[in-house]
Write a structure and sequence with these properties.
The chain is an alpha/beta fold. It has ten helices and eleven strands. Helix 2 packs parallel to helix 3, helix 5 (138-151) crosses helix 6 and helix 7 (195-208) packs parallel to helix 8 (227-240).
């Protein structure tokens, strides 16, 4: 039987530099406006309302944590206050390093909150059921994230698995959490075969639910891309109806903090705080006619 570590309250969360309990009424905000870049919306540090970005993937192990850390380090470098929330961590026992430990190691951002943890490597709903513990509460998660957004310029919310993984027995998903928060969603995808169908289904699910797409990022671009990877660049952009928002290099998660910051800058677009140029990337890996 698995075990669970439930989230109790902000003052007792698994947070680094948690500070005093937050208070104040949440404000709906301008996060739905995705035409402007993230840093255009954050620029000037006087943006009314909250700035929350949800990070999801087309599957497990596609690079969500590395992309989340990259977003966090670029925000920190620009002087923004950043908080990172993981509504549910599964597949790890209490005390084992989790995704947020990787975010801290790579980015230096220490305001992190793991709201629930279940030891079985299942969806949050299934893992909670197996260990006989309550599942995550998306309503509580939304309220807490809205409070965090009152005192942080950027709140990153990293999902578990894909967009429609179940968090509770009512079928609540990360998509439902994003809708509660009125937050745009950044989709992290693999580069290899199989990515196009998974990406298309994820983007279709976003559109069907009226959620804003913040962009598509390749979570791990191989050092020696093959035919499928190179071909998929144009197709991913076609599916998203926009240029790629980034491509982080394979192995970025194993870098030290300074090297990782450089990889993050080069691997994320200006809209996300970096210098990635999708046109140059596309031309570099375009297949010969």
């Amino acid at each position: 039987m698995g075990t669970a570590t439930p989230f109790a309250a902000p003052a007792r969360c698994s947070a680094r530099a948690c500070g005093p309990p937050l208070s104040g009424l949440p404000r709906a905000g301008s996060v739905q406006t995705c035409g402007a870049g993230l840093w255009e919306r954050l620029g000037g540090l006087n943006l009314p309302g909250m700035s929350v970005l949800v990070v999801t993937g087309t599957d497990t192990r596609v690079g969500k944590t590395v992309v989340t850390a990259a977003l966090a380090v670029l925000a920190r470098e620009r002087g923004a206050t950043v908080a990172v929330v993981k509504p549910s961590q599964t597949g790890l026992a209490a005390g084992e390093p989790g995704d947020l430990d990787e975010v801290i190691r790579l980015s230096g951002v220490t305001t992190t909150f793991e709201m629930t943890r279940y030891s079985d490597p299942l969806s949050p709903a299934a893992a909670a059921r197996v260990c006989g513990m309550p599942p995550p509460s998306l309503a509580s998660a939304a309220s807490f994230i809205e409070e965090l957004a009152e005192s942080n310029r950027l709140v990153l919310v990293e999902g578990t698995g894909g967009l429609l993984v179940r968090y509770d027995e009512e079928g609540g998903t990360l998509a439902d959490l994003a809708r509660r928060l009125h937050a745009p969603v950044l989709v992290v995808v693999p580069a290899a075969r199989g990515t196009l169908n998974h990406t298309a289904l994820t983007l279709e699910a976003l559109a069907h639910r009226g959620l804003d797409l913040a962009g598509v990022v390749i979570g791990s671009w191989p050092a020696d891309p093959g035919l499928a990877e190179r071909s998929n660049v144009a197709d991913l952009e076609m599916l998203a109806a926009r240029p790629l928002s980034g491509a982080l290099p394979e192995g970025a998660g194993a870098l030290g903090r300074e090297d990782f910051a450089r990889a993050a800058r080069a691997g994320l677009s200006p809209a996300l705080g970096g210098t990635f140029d999708p046109a140059v990337f596309r031309a570099t890996f375009r297949l010969p006619h």
